[in-house]
Specification:
The complex is a heterodimer of chains A (101) and B (202). Helices cover 77% and strands 0% of the residues of chain A. In chain A, α1 runs antiparallel to α2. By secondary structure, chain A is mostly helical. Chain B is α+β, with helices and mostly antiparallel strands and 202 residues long. Chain B has a domain of 66 residues. Chain B is 25% helix and 24% strand. Chain B has a 3-stranded antiparallel β-sheet, with no helix packed on it. In chain B, strands 2-3-4 form a 3-stranded antiparallel β-sheet, with no helix packed on it. The radius of gyration of chain B is 34 Å and the shape is elongated. The C terminus of chain B is likely disordered. Classes of the chains: A mainly alpha (101), B alpha+beta (202). Chains A and B meet through α1, α2 and α3 of A and α1, α2 and α3 of B.
């Protein structure tokens, strides 16, 4: 028996809001990165759920590309965090307030 | 001193409450929406379809498998008539009637994973009729470039010119850079009394 699509949507909304809460409350850049990943994966759950809902594989295939995009984002994100740590000795996002320093 | 788990609220919990409120609103909308049942993915896809005569022969027809393949065999007064459905054996074949005719239909399980692969590389001719997807070949190439760009960007950001030298990337001048390399670069340990290096308070 198939799980109703509403439950997938609620799971996705929960994951998205956990990510959103992480971004709004944390200052650690690594936590920011993890929270963004949570929000991206919430979108992925919706892609896969609606793929099953419509009986069409476009959503599942698109979810794979979203994962690749998330990997690219993490690669750049960790590079930025590395520079942040070198220049400020910390990974607190509230330290970097100017475009140049 | 008692050490017990405490809620970390350095960033203020009001934004988190807003996020929970957003979840409540979204959950109420999703659970109240008339979404309906999922279509789901098909279990089997038709791969061969041979006519074996009128609908009346269907009751006398059966599927026979020999070493030469799978046949639809119709028992008639003059003997058995066999129609080759597929040269494969061990396939799932049935007799169906439609539009006044009887058909021998061969079906095989639909592989969702294989279909994703076909869709990803734009092999639309390989896609089964029962399971549709758009072609993602262009997207695949674009994501390929994005991943290469991300790799180059990550290496550019992480590179330093010399050991124990702070690369002043994105800085206006050498003087503006903080003095001394951080511990991770082989420099001295920063003064932890002034600033935290582990981000633990964030």
């Amino acid at each position: 028996m198939a799980v109703p699509a509403e439950y997938y949507l609620v799971l996705s909304a929960g994951l998205f809001c956990i990510g959103l809460a992480g971004i709004l409350t944390r200052k650690n850049a690594l936590m920011f990165l993890m929270s963004v990943e949570l929000m991206l994966n919430a979108a992925n759950i919706n892609f896969v759920a609606f793929s099953l809902y419509w009986g069409n594989l476009t959503g599942q295939t698109f979810a794979l590309f979203t994962m690749a995009l998330a990997a690219a984002e993490v690669a750049i994100g960790i590079g930025i965090i590395l520079v942040l740590y070198r220049n400020f000795g910390d990974v607190d996002v509230t330290d970097a307030v100017g475009m140049r320093w | 001193m008692t050490t017990r788990p405490e809620l970390r609220d350095t960033g203020g919990l009001l934004p988190a409450v807003a996020a929970v409120g957003l979840f409540v609103v979204m959950a109420a909308v999703f659970l109240g929406a008339p979404i309906g049942d999922a279509a789901g993915f098909p279990q089997n896809a038709e791969v061969a379809n041979e006519s074996i005569g009128d609908a009346s022969v269907a009751s006398n027809a059966s599927i026979q498998t020999t070493n030469n393949g799978t046949f639809a065999q119709v028992a008639t007064a003059s003997g058995n008539e066999s129609t080759l459905l597929t040269e494969d054996t061990g396939v799932n074949a049935t007799i169906v009637t439609a539009g006044g005719s009887a058909y021998g239909v061969v079906s095989e399980p639909v592989s969702v994973t294989a279909t994703i692969g076909y869709a990803m590389f734009g092999l639309s001719s390989q896609l089964p009729d029962e399971l549709k997807s758009e072609s993602f070949l262009a997207v695949f190439e674009i994501i390929d470039l994005v991943l290469v760009a991300a790799l180059v960007g990550a290496v550019t950001l992480a590179r330093r010119e010399d050991l124990s030298t702070v690369v002043t990337l994105f800085t206006s001048s050498e003087d503006a850079a903080p003095s001394g390399a951080v511990a991770a670069d082989g420099g001295s340990e920063p003064d932890v009394s002034e600033e935290s290096t582990d981000g633990g308070d964030a």
